[in-house]
Design brief:
There is one protein chain. This protein is α+β, with helices and mostly antiparallel strands. The chain is 53% helix and 8% strand. It has a four-stranded mixed sheet with strand order 2-1-3-4. The chain starts with a helix and ends with a helix.
């Protein structure tokens, strides 16, 4: 009984705590140079909403968008995890339809299904085209395919955009992906797609307009 109550309290308070803490802002001169950090999972359909818009905003504002692919996310032991997965497909489709786009995939994916995509993206972290690769993968995955993932489809994207063969999925890459999840949690968040801007968190799929306003505000203060 005590464990169930603790889990309910955690799920209730976690979002509010993150928002409250992220609004504690240091003076601009005490902060690091502005960067955008996106923590995301390929098995999350909301990424199909968030990533194209974030890449456009980063380009428009002349800012780097650092990608942190995830295999582990969410609150451990969440009894509603399956329901959240199903709802995220319906909701992501609703958001995409506003822009004339639509999901083709209607069933949830497991993190293990997309593990090779996360590993390839992590390996390409320093490649300037990694954002374009991730966006192409998400579009192929969620908007242009159904059923089991065809690995060669994504290998072709890797060769065409990153101009090299996909890497082997080594223990080193697996460790780096685990480190991404720890980094996310150590900064006070737990879910995908989460964008960190100057210490402030946004659920990127539903806050693109607010992110744009915040970037304008921050860059206006710097200029």
């Amino acid at each position: 009984m005590a464990g169930m109550l603790r889990d309910r309290v955690q799920r209730s308070l976690a979002p509010r705590t993150v928002v409250a803490l992220s609004r504690l802002r240091l003076p601009r001169w005490l902060r690091r140079p502005l960067r955008l950090e996106l923590y995301f999972a390929f098995d999350d359909p909301y990424v199909a909403v968030a990533l194209p818009g974030l890449l456009s905003l980063a380009l428009e504002h002349g800012l780097p968008l650092d990608l942190y692919p995830l295999l582990e996310r969410g609150i451990a032991g969440d009894p509603a995890a399956r329901q959240r997965q199903l709802y995220s497909i319906v909701d992501a489709d609703r958001l995409l339809l506003r822009g004339g786009r639509q999901l083709s995939r209607r069933q949830p994916l497991a993190a293990t299904d997309c593990a090779f995509l996360a590993a390839w993206t992590e390996a390409a972290r320093r490649n300037p085209e990694v954002g374009s690769f991730a966006a192409a993968v998400v579009e192929a995955l969620w908007l242009n395919s159904t059923g089991p993932l065809q690995r060669e489809t994504y290998a072709e994207l890797h060769r065409g955009i990153l101009h090299c063969e996909p890497p082997a999925e080594t223990e080193q890459l697996q460790a780096a992906l685990s480190a991404n999840s720890r980094r996310l949690r150590s900064r006070g968040h737990w879910e995908s797609p989460a964008l960190r801007v100057d210490g402030e968190w946004f659920f990127a799929h539903e806050r693109l307009a607010q992110i744009a306003e915040r970037l304008d505000e921050l860059l206006g203060a710097v200029r």
